[in-house]
Prior knowledge:
The structure holds 2 protein chains of 2 kinds. Chain A is built from 8 helices and no strands. Chain A is mainly α. Chain A has one domain: MetI-like (MetI-like fold), CATH 1.10.3720.10. The longest helix of chain A has 41 residues. In chain A, 34% of the residues are buried. By secondary structure, chain B is an alpha/beta fold. Helices cover 37% and strands 24% of the residues of chain B. In chain B, helix 4 packs across helix 5, helix 4 runs parallel beside helix 6 and helix 5 packs across helix 6. The longest helix of chain B has 16 residues. Chain B is globular. Chains A and B meet through helix 5 and helix 6 of A and helix 3, strand 8 and helix 4 of B.
Amino acid sequence: MIFDPNFIARLIPALIEGAEVTVELAILTFVICLVWGLVLALANSAQGPSSWIAGIYIQAVRNTPLLIQMYIIYFGFSMIGFGLSGFNSGLLALCIQNGGYVAEIYRGGLQSVSPRQYEAGRALGMRRSTLYRIVIIPQVVARIIPPMINQAISITKDTSQVAAIAVMDVMKVAQVWVESSANTYDVFLGVAVVYLVLTSAVSIAGRLFEHKLAFAQ
Amino acid sequence: MVDISSDVSSRVIEPQTAVARRPMLAMDEVSKRFGSLEVLRNISLSVSAGEVVVVIGPSGSGKTTLLRCINMLEDYEKGIVVIDGEPIGYRPGATPDQRQRMSEREIAAAREHIGMVFQSYNLFPHMTVLHNVTAAPIRVKGVPRARAEERARELLAMVGLSDKMAEYPARLSGGQQQRVAIARALAMDPKIMLFDEVTSALDPELVGEVLAAMQELARAGMTMVVVTHEMSFARDIADRIVFMDGGVIVEQGKPDQLLFSPTTERVRAFLRRYNDRYRI
């Protein structure tokens, strides 16, 4: 039976419990990727071997499916003797791949600042550190917020793939409930609502942040 | 090459400007190449305190590069630049080959004394007009905010932009942005100002307001090196006009002499072409 109130009343707490895992994964992934992506972007824009190593990494992780990366980490690591939990494997795979995307966002932001801005700062006697702190970084931050919001939304949805390696996120909870109840529509509609609520929250938070840091361009 | 020192001393000099004849800028045999192209060939140029030197010449003659070498935005293979007795970029050695590159920190410190205004304004888009003008004094020189803002207000009043202090650059016209850029450079209390084709990107009706600000600055006694295509402005503002072509100073002299009775055929040909183009 579709839209069975009793069923939905029992389903909601279970989905919320799963959603907590989803939120935890998404936040951890995003925060780690903000740092890891910056490291990659700086390595990629530097001279020497760090540049091509970072370049190959970024290409490789963006051009293979996240699910494959998760399997490689989850099953591969346990094969060679130091198995990670499903949660940690999922988190690692999410960070590895999204770090590549976030690095590209940083790179785009850095490239969007005209070389003339660097010259204007230098001509005023600014040292490198001052120049970056007050001229370059504020402009980069303002420009990367919209693509970062998109990435955060994408990460939130990507976390659903950890269900494949037995992590009890909202997606896995749904699969379990479908198997035990055969009430497919109620469960998956419920899951869709959960993701919609989460991504909307990310959007709204991002929009507020964007508004706060925006300047007339 | 023309001997500059004799030219400077041959200027009519008022008794009280004897002190002001101290050289504010001295470029000594500066050479610069981009790959196989020699952009500057053994350029020597001396500018005294309070003097306004306008550099003219065809595009590609090295005018802008000359300006950019003065504050080390462009590195150069040979030569020394000295601002008010202090080297910027390289310290002279026993021989010209033994010059020593200064550290980035020392170069940055030396740049504080050189104001530069660019063709494309290059204001900081994320800062208000007032913040654009106060940022460097506060963050580079450590001027207290209140004093920096007071000075910025004076300078913005001087360039006629008192009512725009809270605006962002994107809300201003090109002429207004360029006047903010002038105020921003002046806020560092530079010893010399460099102007790199500052009106070339402006709509014709906005050129006047920028030139007026520069004229006021010249009247106030600022030492200036101005690269421009505005010949009548050059004539009005310059104490000396320098004509460059092919990376060398071909001829220099007082405005009326250089513009109306040039001694070299190269300058005559340039002025002929210029007059043909701009005759109405």
